[in-house]
Amino acid sequence: MYSLAQIATALSLPSYPSFKDIGITELATDSRKIFFPGNTLFFAIPGTHKNGTEFIKDLVKKNVRAFVVPESFDGSEFPDAIFLPVKDVLHSLQSIAAMHRAQFHIPVVGITGSNGKTIVKELLFQLLYQRYSIVRSPKSYNSQLGVALSMWPLQRENSLAIFEAGISKAGEMRRLQEIIRPTIGIFTSIGDAHAEGFINRVEKIREKLKLFSGSKILFYPQDEIGLHEEIIDFVKNVNSGLQLFAWSKNEGSKLWLKKVHKEEQKSILQFQFENEIFNIEIPFTDEASIHNVALCTAFLLHFGWDAFSIHKQMLQLRPVEMRLEQKAGINNCTIINDTYNSDINSLGIALDYLSQQHQHEKKTLILSDIFQSAYSPPDLYEKVAAMVRQKNLYKFVGIGIQLCKYKSLFESIPNCTFYRSTDDFLETYDSAVYNNEAILLKAARVFAFEQISSALELQSHQTILEINLNAVLHNLQQYRSKLKTGVKLMVMVKGFSYGSGSFEIANLLQYAGTDYLAVAYADEGITLRKAGITLPIMVLNIDEASFYGLHKYNLEAEIFDLHLLRSYIQFLEIKNATNVPIHVKLDTGMHRLGFGEEDLPALSDILQANKSVVKVVSVFSHLVASDNRAEDEFSQKQASLLLQMCSKLQEVLGYDFIKHIGNTSSIAALPGLQMDMVRLGIGLYGVDSNIEMQGKLQNVTTLKTHISQIRKVKKGESVGYGRHAFLDQDSLIATVRIGYADGYRRGLGNGVGSMLLQGEAVPTVGNVCMDMTMLDVTGTKAKEGDEVIVFGEQLPVTQLAKWGNTIPYEILTSISQRVNRVYFQS
Predict the structure, then answer these.
(1) What is the DSSP string of 396-426?
(2) Is 494 a catalytic residue?
(3) I need a labelling partner for 613 at 20 to 30 A (CA). Which of 352, 480, 641, 686 fits?
(4) pLDDT tier for residue 499 given thresholds of 50, 70 and 90
(5) SS3 719
(6) Rounded to two decimals, what is the model's pTM?
(7) Which residue out of 208, 494, 585, 704 is catalytically annotated?
(8) Please, which residues bridge with residue 578 across strands?
(9) Is 729 buried (19+), middle (13-18) or exposed (0-12) by CB count in 10 A?
């Protein structure tokens, strides 16, 4: 704990006597992630979308009293709060983190590289946690902000620290090096990730090497092109005291990986180190894991581990699950599975995610003992209990000897139960106890919570659609970065959020601060309201039958027809409603829905006569061909016509309103059409016809299925209904669990489409059936139960659309709701 006086001094700011009475134990930059408000110092960092100062009013209400703010901020309206004004808020946070780091003289591992940073960090943790008290970056916190926040949990009781450092452009590593100051360095790889921020590969390597300016030892892969040479030059010109430890698949490095023998679920690696040859076995077969394990082997050898000890510990490695999964559960529950690690920091992150789930009023935590912590058990579980109390949980289940021992700390939490082991929990498990709840599973791996997850999950279709929520947020930010200052963002979540789920995506968008949501029908909006979504929601298609739902659930109607407008106003008058927000749609060339120029006089008269009943919050139109650069002139004409018509309406109404016409494909391509707001649709899910955006977006959805059966079928035999496919050789035919009832188009059969099996494209054979599709897997190592990718990162949905002679919208929105959606977040 630091006093606020110490913080002020570190920032070269005046300190006052009262500052000494305020103890700071927590640093925060996100107003939604406050556990201990009285001991929190909030850094109001300016953002591209919102500034941190916008949240101070709410934070003061939550009893946060200490803030680091920009010098221009006027806090006079908050007399009970203390403000530390600085030139650069982020830089001040980094300075505090660097000050904290300077108090410790333990081994600190700094990891950088293009890929593998988080995996290597987690593998080292698995290998070393029994020998050291380790503090490490939570998840992949390796940015300018993340590194500073990662440093704060470092305590006197820790004997080893492991931190990641990630950069995306030249000039960024200096600040991270000043915070981490690693004594031990690991350079994982050098690839193309974030390459756009550097002139060339050499500049990228040199920038990353700055992390090790004061390090004593550096581990790295010698075979990476250009890396070894740059490291030698770095030692010569920057850090002459840096000891090097390289591994290679070629003879001549300090650690030589001589042979790799792969079996079904494991690999045997043969190394040579200082004339000694030894083998280690690992439960991985992919090249990336072998690469990462080689780095960890070099690390252990340098620190005195013998070959037998390394082999023994490597056998205990498990795949690093770096994602939190959200699935449908029994009795209308939502299951949030975050059991790949368990420590106090990751618990806080997981509880924040749980609090975002507004689809359920009741929140439940099932938690195991926490093994890896620098806190003493009484202090640790007091802190855990305080975090749990702060989240106002409906139910708490503690599993483990330590939680049972300290269960009195949790007495104020309703519906508390404790079990000594996972088996004890399962022996008394009653599925009826869990109803309409969001249930977070958080555990150390040894507790095998996958058994609890299996018991709670809704057992359904083995074909699943994975939705990467990190990619959704990434894509959202990419479009936000293209917006001019002050332009609002409406996100389309119609059509079950383009097949990706309704409230799950809406929850995320609400948490991310989106301005508006839009749905096609009132029923979709009502579902979101019932799931706790409070954002303004525009309904695109209304009729008289939907008026009641619109009014009851505070949904905002799109008005495109005079008769509809009159009927809606009559309904609102009966309800004595006033100033009801509506959105007026104008037809500027689509000729689908909307008011034309000839309708403006009548529309103006109705709006003018009913000013007290309805209020126009936006007027908009729909671009016809924003994805076709040859039609840009027509798009501009549409925008000009919209503004002309808006001007006439504004003159009649006497007040301003939001004007919008821009959609996904126009946001970057036609920035002049952004107006007051843009509507983001399929781009959120990684699909955009604009070449500039294509390289910046991430894949969001991956459709996966599994092989049910494999049959040997002789040459000349037919496959599937109708005998449309005859084999020209003896073949191996795999049947997978997906068909046209799941959304896999029938036209993709008979070799038109392909799926990915073990990274290899295998064609369809025969007609697609209702629930199954056949694949020709001749020449592969396919096995029954193998996973098959229908579309995803390596086989984009745009490719399926080309094969099927359709568009990505149709593919995504056609995925049946019987296909289980699994949401994950790293």
Answers:
(1) EEEESHHHHHTGGGGTTSSSEEEESSHHHHH
(2) yes
(3) 641
(4) low
(5) strand
(6) 0.77
(7) 494
(8) none
(9) exposed
